[in-house]
Amino acid sequence: MNKIARLEVDNQTYELPVVEGTEGDKAIDVSRLLSQSGYTTLDSSYANTASCISSIAYIDGDKGILRYRGIDIAELCEKSTFMEVSYLLIYGKLPNSAEFARFKERVHHHSLIHEDMKSFFTSYPGHAHPMAILSAMVCSLSVYHPELLEPNQSPAQRDQTITRLLSKVRVLAAFAYKRSVGEAFVYTRPELDYISNFMHMLFTTPMKQYVPDEKIRKALDVLFIIHADHEQNCSTSTVRMVGSSKANLFASLAAGICALWGPLHGGANQAVIEMLEEIHADGDNYKKYIDKAKDKNDPFKLMGFGHRVYRNYDPRATIIKRYCDDVLNHLGIHDPILDIAKELEHAALTDPYFIERKLYPNVDFYSGIIYRAMKIPTKMFTVMFALGRLPGWIAHWKEMVEDPGMRIARPRQVYNGEVGQAYKPIDQRL
Ligand code: CMC
Asked: Which positions are catalytic?
């Protein structure tokens, strides 16, 4: 029997349907409450509002569980690849061999960008942040594909848009990097897989051909899998919000990239390394920074710690921490920053402030240390996150536009400004 919630207000009782998800999530459907009662619901920062029904990713924040299409993240990291996970997220199932071969071929086929676009990159100053370049370039890419901007695309057109973006955003990201270090752009090589090709586009120079290293390739593949989706986070909700106006996928993704840039979201991976470097320069005095993070009069926060949904160890951080040790050992690197990160983690996890608030390391705490060991510059870290998140954003956009019940996203507000104020001419104003 369908459950009903009852809300009593102004001596009236309203019956609200209860929606249950396949993992037992329970939600009270308030979508008709306004027309029934005149009341809206207030939930600042969407701390407890489900904006949609989705079958892409599942998080149990108390238990520290993350699954893509029902498959545990740890199992995917061990057995799958980023390309296969991309297919899984976007098309809802693991591909068979023919489907997977076709998908990889399509992605590979679209791995060039229009030559004219190269001049866009060179117009940016060398110090430009690569996230600024990436979001602008993803939107700019749309002008070369006017046929793909049609709001009511056929499934075939949608597939073309999706594979183009999966492939080309990687090229745009690599070119943004090359621009930031002042090196010549490098094109993909047909014999390389998606990840090795990306590394090749970053690190091959006219003087030196990048030689793929299996351990590094696997670590980057796992990092991308881990970042691939995280249900209705800030950037994914942005992609859905923008896409709900029937804006095309290029525009929706560009908006998602901008949302990801903030240090409370994907930009945290850059902020973590900057914080660890600051602590190192300050004599490795990590205890001082724990105290700062606890001080309510100090705006400092322990970057890479805490999460809106996880009230347990972030399962992605567990996997990344292991790869962090592996990669540094493999490359024979001893990074003092890793020592500080581990000391900070230990100090925080045994401190009542962090224990009471259930604050644990999140996905960004250790990822930057791996990127650093791979010689990826700090400013590129959030671009790496964006590349990993790409299939998740695409999957959410696709799920939304294919939903026959899709409506434009349009939250309400509670107004608390001036009431009925008369316009005063300028000479009568104080
Ligand atoms: N350092 C110190 N205190 C913290 C931290 C932190 N990193 N995170 C949360 N708190 C405190 C917060 O001040 C609050 O304390 P009180 O109850 O006394 O007011 C309590 O913990 C609950 O936190 P909140 O502010 O309600 O948490 P939120 O859900 O609004 O914010 C967050 C989540 C991730 C933005 C926040 O934890 C944060 O700013 N962390 C640092 C930035 C970061 O690492 N972001 C990456 C998130 S993971 C990548 C992604 O998916 O985006």
From this structure: 307, 364
